[in-house]
Write a structure and sequence with these properties.
Two copies of one chain form a homodimer. The first copy, chain A, has ten helices and two strands. With 225 residues, chain A is mainly alpha-helical. Chain A has a domain of 62 residues. Chains A and B meet through helix 3, helix 5, helix 7, helix 8 and helix 9 of A and helix 3, helix 5, helix 7, helix 8 and helix 9 of B. The structure holds a DNA duplex (30 and 30 nucleotides).
Chain lengths: 225, 225
DNA sequence: CGCAATGGATAGTAGTGCGATCCGTTATCT
DNA sequence: AGATAACGGATCGCACTACTATCCATTGCG
């Protein structure tokens, strides 16, 4: 199919498709002439996946490119896929944090990261020590310490146990999927796309709980169920 | 204290502090003269909170402003605080999605949002129907449907149950905190700051689980424990 | 054979967080 | 009291991102 059809069937504008092609998010179509290329169903699937990752979750285009490269090349090693996908961090767009990142990567490890490793050890998780998630968790623990919140890594253990059960659900989602690329795509979807869903559901449950506990306010007397 | 001391004690550069003052993220100091202002400990706390929300979590400055305004003004109504805080969405920076948002707000409701409401009903959650989280969840369900992932709102129910338990932990974090502003700040921290922590722990657990299930690959023979 | 569509490249746009600089004023040190 | 440095405020500019618009020669298709 031509780019116009790809655009119509995907709902993505032609300039955006061109942009993705330029950046390597979409593999180039098979060139049938100097100014004609042929796109297949795989391009459509890939385009939908890109739109999902960039649009719903807000991964930077570069991260999406890495993920897709991993899916395409080493579609076999699911653990690799999971690792690359989960290591992707949301959009940053500041250079200052890049410097902080450099400082941390230069070996200077904050106390929060050490705490994060303790939590990982306490949970019995076997992970790559350099995983971005450890740094993320460390940042949060640092911030909590800075804020004198009285929340340390031990208080996160109940959360960690629930996170563990979530991850069990995650790997269950891989059941019944056959085909290497399909498995990889499913891994991407489960890891990446369910994040905002989880957060949204947590927020909804929070709203429910906080309404029951704190919401019996003076203004709106919604009879508590 | 003067702005320089505020900068030193917070680790935030003076131009950044000025920027926050401009945008209303920090209340202006008490002006002691035409070019002198006095900042107190509350400014320091507020500044740390801002840095946490903007830096660790990546809330747009406008959202942080709303949250802080809510914390300051209606510090009493915890449910209100939770609502405003959890309604804040991560940085968007595209106008196209703003248009999509408009379309949705114009009344045109996608199927995913309807599914999200079904999930909410199935969980027995009582929430404001206009909550942003419902739309977020709807977006994800739309995306899942678009991808033909075979994941519908029913398959998210186990996740929803875990989210519910997470929210129970969340409200437990409010115990032992006294003082209206302290409670509000705690609500912000718990709602906002634990999000990346949760996601990070989920990723770590995923990595652990995927290593056990799929990682016994040919390359690295880490004895499965 | 002609016109519109195609693919490719090069700018330009919007929005964000933040830094640099200028400017008039004022605290502070001597 | 006078020099000097810092202050607060405002404006401009930067870097980054995802995306759009425009121009170009080429070419398919009726």
């Amino acid at each position: 199919m031509k780019i116009s059809e790809l655009s119509r069937r995907s709902g993505v504008s032609i300039p955006t498709i061109k942009y993705y092609l330029r950046d390597g998010l979409l593999p180039p179509g098979r060139a049938t002439a100097a100014n004609q290329a042929d796109y297949g169903e795989e391009h459509l699937r890939r385009l939908r996946l890109v739109r999902t990752l960039v649009g719903v979750r807000r991964l930077p285009v570069g991260a999406v490119k890495e993920i897709l490269g991993a899916v395409t090349e080493q579609g076999g090693d699911l653990h690799q896929i999971f690792g690359i996908v989960t290591d992707a961090r949301p959009v940053t767009q500041q250079q200052k944090q890049a410097r902080e990142r450099e400082r941390e990567e230069a070996g200077e490890e904050t106390g929060g990261v050490a705490d994060a490793r303790e939590l990982v050890a306490a949970m019995g998780w076997e992970v790559n020590p350099g995983t971005a998630a450890v740094r993320s968790l460390g940042e949060v623990l640092d911030a909590l310490a800075d804020m004198d919140a009285g929340i340390d890594w031990r208080s996160l253990l109940p959360y960690a146990r629930l996170a563990d059960r979530i991850s069990e659900l995650d790997v269950q989602q891989m059941n019944g999927v056959s085909g290497v690329l399909e498995l990889a795509e499913r891994a991407v979807l489960v890891s990446v796309l369910l994040e905002p869903a989880l957060l949204a559901m947590r927020r909804l449950a929070q709203e429910d709980k906080s309404a029951r506990l704190f919401g019996g306010g003076p203004k709106e007397g919604e009879g508590e169920g």
